[in-house]
Structure formats: structure tokens, C-alpha cells
Design a protein that fits this description.
- The complex is a heterodimer of chains A (258) and B (267).
- By secondary structure, chain A is α/β, with parallel strands linked by helices.
- Chain A has a domain of 158 residues: P-loop containing nucleotide triphosphate hydrolases (Rossmann fold, 3-Layer(aba) Sandwich).
- Chain A is built from 10 helices and 10 strands.
- In chain A, the strands form 2 sheets. Chain A has a 6-stranded mixed sheet, sandwiched between helices. A 4-stranded antiparallel sheet of chain A has the order 2-1-4-5, with helices on one face.
- In chain A, strand 4 and strand 5 form a beta hairpin.
- In chain A, helix 6 runs parallel beside helix 7 and helix 7 runs parallel beside helix 8.
- With 267 residues, chain B is mostly helical.
- Chain B has one domain.
- Chain B is 85% helix and 0% strand.
- Chain B contains 9 helices and no strands.
- The longest helix of chain B has 39 residues.
- Chain B starts with 6 loop residues before the first helix and ends with a helix.
- The chains are: A alpha/beta (258), B mainly alpha (267).
- At the A-B interface, strand 6 and helix 4 of A face helix 5 of B.
């Protein structure tokens, strides 16, 4: 068995004439936190969805625990999903269900736990993300954006997954709440001993939660390395992105294609 | 050189457009067929979600009772009035009760209930599932290892197929009552003879044919609602379009299948 939890090799994905992923190569080490950075429309979400199995790549290989997943049938995919937890950008909470049932959803419906037991687990997970038992009976629409993100995080960790995916975890939050969410992500991933794959363009988030970073540009991994080497990568794309400069190879190229 | 005034160019464009429409229609039929196959496959394989199915029975069946009942009541009343004034031209006013019960049970109750369900339930299914899609709730179901077809589509389709015949049976009774109300209180028929004539004339095959139609219409409405919601485009516009498409396609399919079923059941 390799040290990699997730391995992507030469992954391509297009939507009609639009080529989104153009040969992604990415390895995520077991028990580490990999953050994919990149501008809007560079293929970050598509990469994440391909690994999750929500989208099927046109070609290439995606391995989880050394197992090829691109040719999985429904049953194998269901088994694989048990290893995953996911925090969606907008929370994606089920608005017809109270908070505790959102958190316990996977336990009740996929693992067959009784509602009574699942309720207790949900309260415990809500506590882990800093929410009291009172919130459990509320509906998602009654919560603030930050609280919804916490509930979504509680749902992502409820089944103790081996891999947790974070899609823009701090988007739409104020800087303080964003920092709180970042701390919670670090804490939850550490407590579970899970592998984490995050996509974001929030650099403070990257610095807080990443062990390794990959820069995605125009459907390809432009640079990958340890967070320690991010500021001295010597890569023009990375330098421009982390300093948020308008001038550089990224914008020049974007301007040229528009 | 190609010119837009060249008749050959116009002919080519028209042929291309017609060809594109035919290909699009064939592709849509294929996609819907796969959706139906998936729905049936998930309907007969576990896991099932009994509480979700029960909720849909209440939502689709019980909460549609008022609108379907009102439609049936006034339809029965109108048929009684119309047939009385029409039949009076050749002294056949006595057939009013027969016409009311036959029209209601065979045609109006299933078709109007189907159309009302398309407006009330089909639209709401498409909007709900469409919104779930654009807010990534359907993706969330998948990541939580719950199949969205089983959790969202199967309960709604089952409820449509089972509840619409029950609604139509109730609509049959209410519609006939509407005819009786007009017959007795407006047209001065004898109450006893109106009821006796209705019961003597109606056959179980009349009622059954309406119930069979209702089951098919229930399937059409819920399937179209789920299909268009599930394949909704992005944003509010996508959900709006999905809702419109669900209602329009349901209504058209109900009318087409009404003819086909009538041909099959009464030929």
C-alpha cells in the first residue's frame, strides 16, 4: 500500500467544447491536509466532484486507498462513499429537517442507526463544532451563515469519515467567523485522524489548514508542495496568486482567452 | 457564395432545424426512458424510506383533496346544466343523470384531477427538487450515501400512482353529487329517481376505467415533476423553467394518454 490516500493521474473532464480539467496529477498523503488553490473557473470544484464520484472524468485514473474508482459500479461507489464526509460551499443543509436530523442524516439513512441514538451523536457532534443542544431543534433557515457552516461541518464529521472534503469553507463569512471555521476544521481533521482535501481561494484559510498546497490553473496542477515552501516556491503563478497581484501570468493568460 | 436570400440556403436551414428538433425529441425520449427505468429499479430494490413515502401520500393525496373535490363538484354541476339545456332540444332531459355519471367517471374526474394535480403537485415537486439541485442538496444526499432517486423520486411517484386513483374515486362521488344538486334543486328532478337512475346506469367498468387512467396520470405528473426538477438548470431561472416544463409536459401527456387509454379501454 502506498502512502497516498488519494491519487489522481492524468484526469481530463470536458463539458462540450469547454475543457475544464486537462490532465490533473495530484497525490494526497494519508492523514494530511491538501488544499487546492486557484482562481474562479479553473476547475477546482470539478476536481473535487470527480474525486467524490459526483462527476465521472472523461479519462484518467483516480485511486482512493490504491483502489481505482473511475470504473466503480453503484455498489462499490456506495461502499466508497462511507469513507467520505463533505462540507459544501453553501452548506447544502436540508431545509425541511431540523438541525439535529441534518447532522444525523447519514447515520440514520445510510448506517441504519435509530433516531434516538443518532440524536445523541448529533448533539455530541454539534458540541464539537461549538454549538449548543438548543440549536439542534432549529431549522437551518433560522441560523446565521456561520452557524450553518458549523452545522454542515458537524454533518461532514458525523460518520467519522476517513476523508473529508471542504468546498470553499470560508466563503461568505466575516474574517473572524472564517477563522473560527478554519480552527474547527483543523481540530476536527486532527481528532478524526482523517485526510482532508480542501478547495479555496482564501489565503488565510490555506495558511491555517494546509499541510500541502496545489495550485490549479486552466485545468492543470501548476505547482504543488508543502505549505512551508509556498512563499518561496519560485513559481510565478503561485507568487502572483498568494500576493493577489493583478499583474502576472494568471491574469495575462485569462485576459488573452477572454 | 451562400446568401440568406438563396432558397437552397433557406431550405437547408429549415431541414437542419427540423432535423435538430427530431434529434432533440428522440434524445429527450431516451433520457426520460432511462429516468423511468431508474425509478422502477429503485422502487423494487431496498432500501425504502417508509416515512418519506407516507409524507408524500399526505402531501400529494390528502392536501389535493380540496382542489380536486371543488373541481369535481362544479364540473358535475355544469354538466347537469349543459346536458339539460342541450337535451331539451330533442326531449331527452331524462338522460341528464346518465350523462353526468358517465362523463364524470370516465373522463372528467380523471382528466381534471390529473390536470389539477399537475398544477398543484407537479409544479411543487419540480420546484422543490430543482431548488435542492441548485443548492447542492442532491449532491449532499449522495455524499451521505443516500440515493436521491430512492429518497426523492420513488416516494413521490409511488404516492402519485396510488393517491390519484383514490382522489378520482372521491371526485367521482362528489361530481355525481354536484349533478344531483343541480338536478334536484335547479332542474326539479326527483331526488330518489335521480339517484336510482344514476346507480342503475353506472357500471363498475366505467369507474374502473377512470381509476386506471388516474393511476397513469398520477405516474405522468409525478415523473414529469421529478424529471424536470432533477434536471433543472442553474439559478432561479433554471428552477422556474423546470417548474413550467413540468406542468406543461404533464398536461400535454395527460391529454395524449387520455386518448390512447380511452381507445384501449373502450375499443
Amino acid at each position: 500500500m502506498t502512502d497516498y490516500k488519494i491519487q489522481m493521474k492524468d484526469v481530463y473532464k470536458s463539458f462540450g467544447e469547454k475543457h475544464i480539467l486537462r490532465g490533473i496529477d495530484l497525490n494526497v498523503e494519508r492523514g494530511t491536509s491538501m488544499v487546492i488553490i486557484g482562481g474562479s473557473g479553473t476547475g477546482k470544484s470539478v476536481t473535487l466532484k470527480c474525486v467524490l464520484g459526483l462527476m465521472h472524468p472523461d479519462s484518467g485514473s483516480i485511486k482512493i486507498d490504491d483502489q481505482e474508482t473511475t470504473d466503480f459500479g453503484e455498489k462499490d461507489r456506495d461502499e466508497m462513499m462511507k469513507k467520505f464526509g463533505m462540507l459544501f460551499q453553501g452548506g447544502a443543509l436540508f431545509d425541511s429537517l431540523p438541525v439535529w436530523e441534518n447532522v444525523a442524516f447519514g447515520l440514520i439513512h445510510a448506517e441504519g442507526m435509530s433516531k434516538y441514538d443518532a440524536h445523541d451523536v448529533a448533539i455530541e457532534k454539534l458540541r464539537a463544532v461549538g454549538l449548543g443542544a438548543k440549536v439542534a431543534e432549529n431549522f437551518p433557515a433560522e441560523l446565521s451563515g456561520g452557524m450553518q457552516k458549523r452545522v454542515s461541518l458537524a454533518r461532514a464529521i458525523a460518520t467519522n469519515p476517513e476523508i473529508i472534503f471542504f468546498d470553499e469553507p470560508t466563503t461568505g463569512l466575516d474574517p473572524i467567523m472564517a477563522d473560527v471555521i478554519n480552527d474547527l476544521i483543523v481540530q476536527c481533521v486532527k481528532d478524526l485522524g482523517a485526510t482532508a482535501l480542501t478547495i479555496t481561494h482564501d489565503m488565510s484559510s490555506v495558511r491555517k489548514i494546509a499541510d500541502n498546497v496545489a495550485l490549479l490553473h486552466e485545468g492543470k496542477i501548476e505547482w504543488t508542495g508543502s505549505i512551508k515552501n509556498l512563499s518561496r516556491s519560485g513559481n510565478a503563478y503561485v507568487d502572483q496568486f498568494i500576493h493577489g497581484r493583478a499583474d502576472g501570468p494568471i491574469m495575462k493568460h485569462a485576459g488573452a482567452t477572454e | 457564395m451562400e446568401s440568406k436570400y438563396n432558397p437552397v440556403f433557406w431550405l437547408q436551414n429549415i431541414c437542419q432545424m427540423i432535423g435538430g428538433m427530431i434529434l432533440g425529441a428522440c434524445s429527450m425520449v431516451g433520457v426520460i426512458s432511462i429516468f423511468i427505468y431508474d425509478t422502477v429499479r429503485h422502487m423494487v430494490t431496498p432500501p425504502w424510506y417508509p416515512s418519506k413515502i407516507w409524507n408524500q401520500f399526505i402531501s400529494i393525496g390528502f392536501f389535493s383533496l380540496a382542489v380536486v373535490g371543488m373541481t369535481a363538484l362544479f364540473s358535475g354541476m355544469v354538466i347537469a346544466l349543459q346536458s339539460y339545456t342541450g337535451f331539451a332540444r330533442f326531449n331527452a332531459e331524462g338522460a341528464v343523470a346518465n350523462v353526468v355519471v358517465l362523463t364524470i367517471t370516465r373522463e372528467l374526474a380523471p382528466v381534471l384531477a390529473g390536470l389539477m394535480l399537475a398544477a398543484r403537485v407537479g409544479a411543487s415537486i419540480a420546484a422543490e427538487i430543482g431548488t435542492m439541485k441548485v443548492t447542492e442538496q442532491i449532491d449532499a444526499l449522495r455524499t451521505l450515501n443516500v440515493n436521491p432517486m430512492k429518497y426523492l423520486v420513488v416516494p413521490r411517484v409511488l404516492a402519485g400512482v396510488i393517491m390519484l386513483p383514490i382522489l378520482v374515486f372521491i371526485a367521482d362521488i362528489i361530481g355525481v353529487m354536484g349533478g344531483w344538486l343541480v338536478g334536484v334543486y335547479v332542474l326539479d328532478f326527483s331526488s330518489v329517481s335521480y339517484i336510482k337512475q344514476t346507480l342503475d346506469f353506472v357500471e363498475w367498468s366505467d369507474v374502473n376505467s377512470g381509476l386506471i387512467k388516474a393511476a397513469v396520470f398520477g405516474l405522468i405528473v409525478t415523473l414529469m415533476g421529478c424529471y424536470h426538477g432533477y434536471n433543472s438548470g442553474r439559478g432561479a431561472q433554471g428552477v422556474g423553467r423546470a417548474t413550467t416544463n413540468a406542468v406543461v409536459s404533464s398536461a400535454i401527456l395527460i391529454l395524449i394518454f387520455n386518448y390512447i387509454l380511452t381507445q384501449v379501454l373502450f375499443s
